[in-house]
Amino acid sequence: MHRSLSSNMATRWGICGGGKISHDFTVAMKSLPPEHHQVVAVAARNLERAQEFGKKHSIPAMYGSYDELARDPNIDVVYVGVIHPYHLKTCLLFMDAKKNVLCEKPLAMNAKEVKEILASAKRNDVFLMEAVWSRFFPASVEIRRLLAQGEVGEVKMVRADFGQPLMHLPRSMNKELGAGTTLDLGIYPLQFAIMVYGGEKPESIKATGVCTETGVDETVAVTLKFSKGRMAVITSSSGLELDNDAVIMGTKGKIRIPGHMWCPTSVLVNGKESQYPVPEPYLPLNFLNSTGLRYEAEAVRQCLLKGLKESSVMSHADSLLLAEVEDEVRMQVGVVYSQDSN
Fold this sequence. Notes:
This protein is α/β, with parallel strands linked by helices. Strand 12 (253-257) and strand 13 (266-269) form a beta hairpin. The longest helix has 18 residues, at 316-333. It has helices at residues 20-29, 47-57, 66-71, 87-96, 111-124, 138-148, 170-173, 181-196, 293-305, 316-333, 338-341, and strands spanning 11-16, 37-43, 61-63, 77-80, 100-104, 128-131, 155-163, 204-211, 217-225, 231-237, 246-250, 253-257, 266-269, 272-275. The strands form two sheets. Strands 8-9-10-7-11-12-13-14 form an eight-stranded mixed sheet, with helices on one face. Helix content is 34%, strand content 23%. Helix 8 (181-196) crosses helix 10 (316-333). The chain has eleven helices and 14 strands.
């Protein structure tokens, strides 16, 4: 059974998956106080990979299978960093072993799988959160505070883009690996719009896009309409570099994230800029600003200390809504995964 965590105990993490994002997450953890966070185990597809990862990051326990990690009694929470077609199976494995889980986004391939994961979390009475790291950056916390205070009046329009040329990567072309810009990149501007509008379900979703010959979405534009005539316009692309900014437009002004909206380090409020830099990494990172993964890790610790089973910042309802919006976007653009028909 899981121990109840008290504030004088470190949260003990297990890392599932020895890939790029797991590397960055583990590097980010080193920027947090060791008396609060410890990475105590890693599991990979094979022992050699786990040992390579474990040695690089000085992790004491190294496993060549996910099952062994699930059986390790010395773990409070597992970070799932495997590719998204495996999220469902992997999350169920750990939750059935009564492990708390922080699972990389997207939580699953579609809303049906997300519902299965959420049901398992409830059934096993464990904490579960989709790792939408963007929401936990100090810049995002500040944006939510400004919105709650009505800083820019009534928000009428959100615009957000995320595009990077990734089509040379197998994971961006191969449908079996869960390729497609909506689940990979579009999820960031989509979750941003949902966050700004307080988790409200859009009244209408209109999406159009360009797909590759492999049947994955390369560039997608989405218009969301919410109640009271409020809108959001979202673009994402795995084919080219977009502006990658986000703007919230209200009746009394605007809030802007000038660049890399998925890992924001500065916010402009009616043109006045505030900076929120992330810590320097102690090892080279694979992705921009990845030490910012520390914020979601600390949020998980705070939830566990309070005995919560979900985070109010990225709730189970948020994850389900996000998956439902992604499903609708993919349906309109014509992207079907094998998981959609099972």
